[in-house]
Design goal:
heterodimer, A: 202 residues, alpha+beta, Lipocalin, 2 domains, 2 helices, B: 285 residues, mainly beta, Porin, 12-stranded antiparallel β-barrel, 7% helix
Chain lengths: 202, 285
């Protein structure tokens, strides 16, 4: 037998073994990728900012909440927000009390939540800095009522954070919140909600 | 790939699981810093000024000549201010009996659930009354003789969204009493409650029991008031029926009130208007 023939035989003998290793390697690598790749990671924060404006020309009614819990799955675009209603801070203590007691009934409904999805998450490259326009839709639950909302928003990717922003409007009556006629000219029937959440990439 | 809905619920569950439980302070145990005459467990928030104008009309049993008491009225002006969420000071002036006074109200405990679980709210109130009537008695007309002090501990709890109750153990000290048989120190127990009947309206009841001392020689009538709180934006309007004409606590509790059953009932109201002088940097609620 020549050297050449010998090597051919060796190659033939090696083939089935090589195939098995490569399959195993793929499976192992697949698991590793699934567990550790950025695609499986969920971004999280507990210090998101949500504020709203519900006033009119007569009265400035607005409040801020800086303790918003939020997460975002960058591979699927799924996202959720959870807000303690009592965490909204008003300019006036009495306004805050009314907001909790008369409008949001925060003892009965302590939390407002949103769970939804960014439909065009594929547009966003989480490894490349920049601002991406996206669309979000999902279920907003507050005051015991769940309604579907959808809104455009932006995702700004930077080296160490992902910043999600959106502004949308809701109608108070959709959530069974009634404004008494005495203050009709001070409280708007539609409320503008601003969401500004910075997730850490780490 | 899992069903979308499930995945999204998981997203929300993940959020909640990571959150440390916060302390949830109970708010609006009472709607105002006063139930009728009694102090409630509520303090004004930091930077809030409460301007109160209180009226008590004459007794109903005066009949038609004074239009059932409505021709005449006792008035009190009261200015309360929240220096801190736990510290409130106030000054006031009553027409009948001519007196002025100041109080300091300290909040020691706040009812809460969650991280800190506290079943009650507790407030200490010290009211100092200065009698401003012309003095005709036999003694020297010293300023110190005109002073009376009311020490109160207000212990309250909001039992449900609609029902709140408080107890008010009280010590009243008068520097000078009219008769030698009277005691300078007197003890009383107040009880007050609030029942909400709609989002903005509640029914309030308040009663003071004066522990009988030698000063109470004949049948004494304690102060009993039944009222309603109506809330409209920045105002709380309190309207009630009471057998006490006075509004300064020392007289409400120790001075003989009139008899409800004999028509010794005064229509009264408190108007409270709050002003936010500044917004504190960190809102504690």
């Amino acid at each position: 037998m020549t050297n050449n023939q010998l090597s051919k035989i060796n190659k033939l003998k090696m083939k089935p073994f090589k195939k098995l290793t490569s399959i195993l390697a793929t499976i192992v690598l697949g698991f590793v990728l699934f567990a550790f790749s950025p695609a499986g990671k969920v971004y999280l924060t507990h210090t998101g900012h949500i504020w709203f404006f519900a006033g009119t020309a007569m009265e400035d009614v607005n409040a801020n909440n800086y303790q918003v819990a939020a997460n975002l799955n960058p591979s699927t675009g799924e996202m959720a927000y959870s807000v303690l209603v009592k965490g909204f801070e008003f300019r006036r203590a009495l306004m805050q009390e009314h907001f909790n007691e008369n409008y949001m009934e925060s003892d009965k409904y302590p939390k407002s939540t949103f769970k939804g999805k960014i439909s065009d998450i594929s547009k966003v490259d989480f490894d490349k800095n920049g601002t991406y326009n996206v669309n979000v839709s999902g279920d907003l639950s507050m005051h015991g009522v769940t309604k579907t909302v959808s809104s455009p928003g932006t995702i700004t990717v930077s080296a160490d954070s992902v910043h999600a922003k959106s502004t949308f409007k809701i109608a108070l009556k959709d959530y069974n919140i009634t404004v008494p006629s005495v203050v009709k000219d001070k409280i708007s029937e539609t409320v503008q909600i601003h969401v500004d959440v910075a997730y850490s990439k780490k | 790939m899992p069903v979308l809905g499930t995945a999204q619920s998981n997203m929300l569950d993940q959020l909640d699981s990571g959150v440390a439980p916060a302390t949830d302070y109970t708010t609006a145990t009472f709607k105002s810093t006063r139930v009728v005459n009694a102090q409630s467990v509520e303090n004004l928030s930091e930077g809030v000024l409460d301007v109160r104008i209180d009226h008590r009309f004459g007794p109903v049993n005066e009949g038609g000549y004074t239009f059932f008491g409505l021709d005449e009225a006792n008035t009190r002006f009261q200015f309360d201010y929240g220096i801190k969420d736990w510290l409130q000071v106030g000054i006031g002036r009553s027409a009948v009996p001519k007196s002025y006074g100041g109080n300091i109200k300290l909040k020691f405990l706040r009812q809460s659930t969650g991280k800190v679980n506290m079943p009650i709210s507790l407030v200490y109130n010290l009211f100092t009354n200065v009698d401003a009537l012309n003095y005709t008695g036999p003694r020297n007309n010293d300023f110190s003789n005109r002073l009376s002090y009311v020490h109160q501990i207000v212990i309250g709890r909001k039992f449900s969204e609609n029902f709140s109750l408080e107890l008010i153990p009280t010590l009243i000290h008068a520097n000078l009493v009219e008769l030698s048989t009277q005691k300078n120190d007197q003890y009383a127990m107040g009880i007050a409650m609030r029942q909400k009947i709609s989002k903005r309206v509640s029914i309030n009841l308040e009663y003071f029991y004066l522990y009988p001392t030698l000063s109470v020689t004949d049948a004494f009538t304690n102060s009993l008031s039944l009222g309603m709180d109506i809330e409209t934006g920045g105002h709380v309007f309190q309207i009630f029926l009471t057998n006490s004409l006075a509004m300064n606590e020392n007289d409400v509790i120790t001075d003989r009130s009139e008899n409800w059953l004999k028509g010794g009932i005064h229509l009264g109201f408190n108007i409270s208007r709050v002003f936010t002088t500044y917004k504190p940097k960190h809102n504690s609620i």
